[in-house]
Amino acid sequence: MSERKAIFITGGGSGIGRAIALKFAQQGWFVGLGDISESGMKETAALIGTEHTSSHVFDVRERAAWDEALDAFIAKSGRMDVLANNAGIPIGGSIIENSEDEITRCLDINLKGVLFGAQAAHPHLKKTAPGSCLLNTASAAGIYGSAGGSVYCATKFGVRGITESLDGEWAVDGIKVRSLMPSFIDTPLLDMVPNAGTNEHIRNRVKASGLEITPVEEVAEAAWRAVHEDKLHWPVGKTAKSIAFAARWMPGRVRKQMRGQMQLLGE
Ligand code: NAD
User: What is this structure's pTM?
Assistant: First the structure.
């Protein structure tokens, strides 16, 4: 087996995935990128140096494509120490305005994609255990359900549940399982619209609500720590940390806030 550690990152062509790629590459790791966006991965690879990366165009919703991508990655890297199950899309708005297609797409990418990734990665992570890690990108939306975020929250609560289940299930194999729970992070995701019924970008709504936007490097730092430290869930950003605290110690207050907050998205 190769000496050099290796991480595979879905959504590696943008935002949080790119920041995680840069962080691990700086620490000397080989980085595999998986994304539907070839151009995004090219940009990430150019920042790292193509000799330290491999790129794999695939859709996390396709189970067979996962096996192909991971086999091609391991043919180059020689091993996989971490899977960052990170690709995901936003959706917001009231449950009544979300279309069937929007709901299905979000559930498939954010939830099914994560389950398929875990399944495909398990044999490879087992070979590098103990110490190997499945790192799932959940969200602060997986801490407390927010008004206007039911579908997204469903997926991120799901990712949180998958993380807790596999932390138990894979303990016997020596594989660590962790989740990142960021609040609003400065990535291209914030420049998307939350659903087809509006032209307003998520970023505008976050700003209007007075909440902070956290630099993406903080998520990369948390990712590095999550892989190396013994804590299951990693809230990132002031809002995520305060929701985590309040949901635990002041649930009545959080509920009251959410009931007054229909304008906000569930990120
Ligand atoms: P981003 O839009 O910058 O990057 C997402 C990447 O995933 C893109 O490169 C996109 O091409 C890729 N992708 C989308 N669908 C895919 C598919 N079906 N198969 C493969 N790749 C696909 O977004 P980001 O902010 O970096 O988000 C990354 C993760 O972080 C997501 O799971 C998101 O839900 C989560 N998150 C983001 C924020 C935030 O505020 N930005 C907060 C909490 C959680």
Answer: 0.97
pLDDT tens across 100-136, in order?
Answer: 999 999 999 999 999 999 999 999 999 999 999 999 9
Tracing tokens 């975020």 back to the chain, one arrives at 149
**Ligand 1: does its nearest atom lie under 6 Å from the Cβ of 149?**
no
**Minimum CA distance residue for ligand 1 atom 5:** 11
141 backbone dihedrals φ, ψ, rounded to 5°: -65, -10
* Cα–Cα distance list, 40 to 46, 75, 159, 229 (Å): 10, 22, 24, 30
Ligand 1 pocket residue status of 84, Cβ below 6 Å? no
Please tell me the predicted confidence (pLDDT) of residue 34.
98
CA atoms of 166 and 233, how far apart (whole Å)? 13
Which burial class, exposed, middle or buried, applies to 241 when counting CB atoms under 10 A from its CB (0-12, 13-18, 19+)? middle
Q: Please give the domain boundaries of the chain with CATH numbers for all domains.
A: 6-264 (3.40.50.720)
Dihedral through CA 58, CA 62, CA 67, CA 72, nearest 10? -10
Atom 2, ligand 1: which residue's CA is nearest? 189
Counting beta carbons within 10 angstroms of the beta carbon of residue 19, is it exposed (0 to 12), middle (13 to 18) or buried (19 or more)? buried
Q: What is the pLDDT of residue 119?
A: 98
